[in-house]
Amino acid sequence: MAHLGKALTIAFGTLALSSTLAIVPIDTCVWASRSSARHYGTDGNAGQMGRDGRAGNDGQNQTIRATGSPFNLDLSGSHGRDGEDGEDGRRPRCRQQPDRVNGDLRAANGANGGDGGRGGNGGRGGTLTVYYTDPSQLRQILVNADGGRGGRGGRGGRGTAGCECDDHQWTITTCTDGTCTSKDYDCYDGTDGRYGNDGNPGENGEVGQLVLINQTEPLPDEAPTQTVALATITEPIELSRNLWETRSGAPALLASGSVIADSYQHYTGHITGRFQLDWQAARSQTQFTEALNLALAPSGQIQLAFPEDLWISGETRQTETLTTYRVDGIVRAQEATRLAMGQVSGRSRTFEMNLVDLGRQSNLVDTQFLIRYRTTLDDNPRRARYATQYEGTIPAELISRDHNRFSLALGRLPIRSQLLSAGTQAQIEITAVRSYGGRSAEQKLDWQGRI
Fold it and tell me: Between 20 and 30 A from 431 (CA), which of 95, 186, 223, 310?
């Protein structure tokens, strides 16, 4: 490694150690010369990375019935394989240094070693499910549900040394018409390749779990969730769920020496629920094929999740065995934001803007309008600079609706009448806030022109 020390000395000078570390500036001229120097010899090739170790297999899951007879079960996960070592870097070809050339030289570089492969993860232990009637019978069950050990990471490959120059400095003298000039040139040793990084070890597999069911008959089937198209819900829908409780102390329940996770699942019962839809909306139920998601919670309540693109107003009624949702009205979100600019008429205090609801849902959807009113004195609207004259919510008393047509009496806003007079060049931005069934959306409409 002597050549590496020489290279560091060229680059950084000599560091003097003291109680305070001195920061030595890099000689950028040296590094510039080195990078532009003529290369000779052949660099070494980097070693390949070692392959990762294969993960261990999970332990098998097993279901048994405790009878008081001894059981000895191996549900352990297998160990992960070790990662392969990285290859050593290949040596460079250190050819003879060209003799006293007109220019700097740089010898061939060494090669990096390959990184070691990662160790494979250990397999997790299997799950043991036990049906029983007498807790003392569990003491006859010996189980090993340990997780497999993670494999070791492979070692990094060795880097190879760079080539060294035979002659690190020389001088070339050139004479022309009796005038001679001398110039010094340098040869830089090749850089050494680094050693590859060792691979990370694999993770140990998780210990398997215990599931206890205090009965002999198989668990009933369950359907805790359902996804149903709204249009098809004409009869009550059945939901069911098995109930579980998380407890601790599993190893103490089994035979001494058992290896299993401390927390376990204990069966506590089975619940059912029924759901029906009461469609009272004016629009036909068959128009809506979107899916309704139903879930029976451990508490026994049925939770509803309507699609985001449907705005629904209704009410839930709950009895001991039946959950009913009454649909009073329904709007698609895309229908709520289909306002279009209508006629703009009048001036000064009679200035009015009309909007049309192309979605035709204004009898259900609540609407609030906000306005930003801007004007300019420039006759060329392309280069005009507009100033905001009014910004705020349009009061409800200035809004009238005839079915799906809105009229906005903008001339009655607190805006100076001369800013609404004939010939005024204006920009109007209307923001409509539409809401129904607890959901809302905004739509912006723009108008620009001369009043």
Answer: 310
